[in-house]
Amino acid sequence: MIAIGDQAPEFDLPDTDGDQQPLQTPAVVIFTCNHCPYALAWHGRLMQAARDYPDVHFFAINPNDAERYPRDSLDAMKERVRGDDGWPMPYLRDESQEVARAYGAKTTPDVFVVDSGGALRYRGAPDPDSNDPTLNATWLREALDAMLAGEEIARPHTEPVGCSVKWK
Amino acid sequence: MTVELLWWDGCPSHPEALADLQRILREEGIETEVSRIEVTDDDQARRERFPGSPTIRINGEDIVTPAEAEPYSLTCRIYRTRDGRVSPVPDPEDVREAVRRAA
Question: What is the ipTM of this complex?
């Protein structure tokens, strides 16, 4: 598992169009999935953050075991993105779960902010409450605003909240 | 009245669901213990007809009818609040309505 200040693990994962997507920085790497109510509740806030920070590369990564949880299969991911008329970030499949393990992802969602030098600057939840859309991913936005301004991030780590990653 | 809360520890939502349930039972003047049943594997999930965590049953009946396609497994259950948002716990008003129906 990586700590704040460590280099974020590189990856090169397939998206829902079949294209490989390598990590590009600065980045927000979000471990998420199709079937978790926490991931779904925060989804709109994270999509809006991706639209509001066009200079930051956002990546959604689904690492869940699709054999036991078929709703997290690549086909189900494609169907979801198609149903939403596309997403403002690629939705990547981490079939081997190696990327999730390298980051130490615990839950869906679990959010990692990586600076332009590839160092981890924030890790945790998007904001304090999945049930309150008015919070608008405030912890993530605070981290991004500070990082992009070249300032220290006041709250670099919060506890990720959500469904456990479904390991094989 | 029998009240059961079935839960799985892969979801962090059951303490909130239990707190809502106990508060509503108190507010409705119902004195009954909530049986907490931990579901720990897929076999038990199938035996208990467990559509996800948390699941609340009153007199054996799920307070929110699960979707037919929902397999019985260790998963987090998706609820909808009355204003249409996705939630990891049932809307407290749905819990209250179920308690009143059974009272």
Answer: 0.87
Going along chain A from its start, the domains and CATH numbers come out as: 41-164 (3.40.30.10)
| Long-range Cβ contacts of A42-46 (<8 Å, 24+ apart) | A42/A109, A42/A126, A42/A127, A42/A130, A42/A137, A42/A162, A44/A133, A45/A126, A45/A127, A45/A133, A45/A135, A45/A136, A45/A137, A46/A109, A46/A111, A46/A126, A46/A137, A46/A140
Nearest CA in chain B to A108: B11
- Name the residue among A38, A69, A166 with its Cβ closest to that of B88: A38
Q: Where are the domains of chain B?
A: 3-102
**B85 and chain A in contact, CB less than 8 A:** yes
Give the strand order in the sheet containing A110-114: A91-93, A57-62, A27-31, A110-114, A120-124
Residues of B in contact with A36 (CB under 8 A): 76
User: Does B44 contact chain A (CB < 8 Å)?
Assistant: no
Among A32, A34, A36, A161, most B C-beta atoms within 10 A, so best to mutate, is A36
Q: Answer whether B78 sits within 8 Å of A161, measured CB to CB.
A: no
In B, which residues are within 8 Å of A40 by CB distance?
Answer: 78, 86
Sheet architecture: strand order including B3-7 = B34-38, B3-7, B55-58, B61-62
Tell me the pTM: 0.93
Residue B16 scores a pLDDT above 90: yes
User: Over the stretch A88-139, which tens digit does the pLDDT of each residue have?
Assistant: 999 999 999 999 999 999 999 999 999 999 999 999 999 999 999 999 999 9
